[in-house]
């Protein structure tokens, strides 16, 4: 089974990167195939809301998303990992998420794109925020839930860490890294 890890942070080696890497190590230890994407290194235009995908099931914008769509379609597990920017995802990751609209359109065009997404496909979220805000993760969790729904993937929760701001501060919290590893092992199991 393919596990797709999506780095959402524009800062390499930051807290969400380290947690995702640890999670993917756990999944790899269970024998799963791992692929990764770094949203900030992809050339992705924002969705133009042109309606093309509503008719065809395909996005007409020719950019790096054309390499991402096959991974979306093939992955049995997807893990988003991201810092919180103003109670949301960074812009680069949000552009990638918005462009999943074509996969939602495919779900609506059932006669043209038969559904092959079994209940086995699952998605997870690892989110890191610097503040203690009560609602810090509500927005990104809701966005992740609908992103996964568009892909035909069941949202299965994740890990949420507050008060991590400085680059690699998570290294001072080995318990957090262990939780990420255990999540990776967990995603290998059927629900």
Question: Summed up, what is this model?
Answer:
The chain has 191 residues and is α/β, with parallel strands linked by helices. The protein contains 7 helices and 5 strands. The mean pLDDT is 94.
How would you characterize this protein structure?
The protein has 191 residues and is of the alpha/beta class. The chain has one domain: Rossmann fold (3-Layer(aba) Sandwich). Helix content is 39%, strand content 18%. It is built from seven helices and five strands; from the N terminus they run E-H-E-H-H-E-H-H-E-H-E-H. It has helices at residues 15-29, 52-56, 65-74, 91-98, 101-108, 138-151, 174-187, and strands at residues 2-7, 33-38, 77-83, 122-128, 154-161. Helix 1 (15-29) packs across helix 7. The relative contact order is 0.22. The mean pLDDT is 94.
Total separate domains: 1
**SSE sequence, one letter per element:** EHEHHEHHEHEH
Give the CATH architecture.
Answer: 3-Layer(aba) Sandwich
What kind of assembly state do the chains in view correspond to?
single chain
Q: Which residue ranges are poorly predicted, with pLDDT under 50 across at least 5 consecutive positions? A: none
Number of helices: 7
> Nearest-angstrom radius of gyration?
16 Å
The percentage helix is: 25-40%
- The backbone outline, from C-alpha atoms, is globular
The counted number of beta strands is 5
Briefly note the CATH topology name.
Rossmann fold
Blueprint of the fold:
Layout: E1 2-7, H1 15-29, E2 33-38, H2 52-56, H3 65-74, E3 77-83, H4 91-98, H5 101-108, E4 122-128, H6 138-151, E5 154-161, H7 174-187
Parallel strand pairs: 1-2, 1-3, 3-4, 4-5
Helix pairs in contact: 1-7
